[in-house]
Amino acid sequence: MPKFPLPVLGALLLLLSASASFAQEAAQPKAASSYHLVEKWLHLPAGQPLGSMSWLDFDSHGTTYLMRRCATCGQHTKEGDPPSVIWTFDKDGNFLKEWGEGPIAKEGHSLRVDRNGFIWITDTGAHQVKKFSPDGKLLMTLGKYGVSGDGPDTFNMPTDTLVVANGDLFVTDGYGNHRVVKFNKDGKFIKTWGTLGTAPGQFRISHSIVQDSRGRLIVSDRCGLSNTPCTGTRIQIFDTDGKFLDQWLTMGGDERYPLSSPASLYITKNDTLYIGCGGSVYVADARTGKLLDVLEGLGTTHGIAVDRGGDIYIAGLDRGGLHRYSRNAVP
Question: Is residue 331 a part of any domain in this protein?
């Protein structure tokens, strides 16, 4: 090792220290999120565990609708498990009732409340999509119970729904068919797009779908269910006719924040987009994909929703339960 005079050695050490600090800073994730976990906000019915929660949403009154997949099952149901149900809570987290008439779903997946207050669910176990009135009356069923298929009247484990302003319905038919299906407000088939693959317009799993203020459809394309390599996952953007417009592989082009298996999407009226991605939630500008905030170390982020106060709620499935994160003072 060459010998340097002490002044030179000191300067070299200072330079190396600065370089190491710069490299370490560049490798660090985004500064700590401004969100914190809210404890003990949900009041369960007496004697009932929360169980496996798959998805959630809110109506205009602040009522919370939870898709309770099962009291005891994990990520997936098994033979003999009870059917999924919907639990409702008021804006203060007080349990209201177990919602709906008859079995809601064999294996409940997503739950969305549309702009008119109707509740839409996907059932991966029965291969169906259902629409309910706010008081729990079944109004429409798409798909054939227990029949998987890729036709205009069948699904193969559908994953999410979106109802747009004119009433058209978009279904991500993701686990088995890797596509998006479009229907009119009466449930009449219009068109479908997507096949298995990683090219633009193809999907690994079309898992969640929202629409921004410009009318663009934003679709999460996540990993498959098998042990195959997790490649090609991303956010894809389409017009309402299924024309591919853009894709994001990372948030805002930042390689530190890859879109590795994005599962769930939620968007607000001002185009703030929330993406449940692996063990993180990315908060982004839907118009540009620019990252605004990030929550990390969360476990599974299967279903997410945001209330009117800006709090983020995460349904975790195998992780169990439901978790709430807020920027506000702890209640």
Answer: no
Tell me: the pLDDT tens digits for 61-100?
A: 999 999 998 776 766 666 767 889 999 999 999 999 998 6
Is 220 among the domain residues?
yes
Does residue 195 share a domain with residue 259?
yes
Which range of residues forms the domain containing residue 271? 31-326
Its pTM stands at 0.87
Domain count, the chain: 2
User: Does one domain contain both 146 and 82?
Assistant: yes
Q: How far apart are CA 144 and CA 303, in angstroms?
A: 25
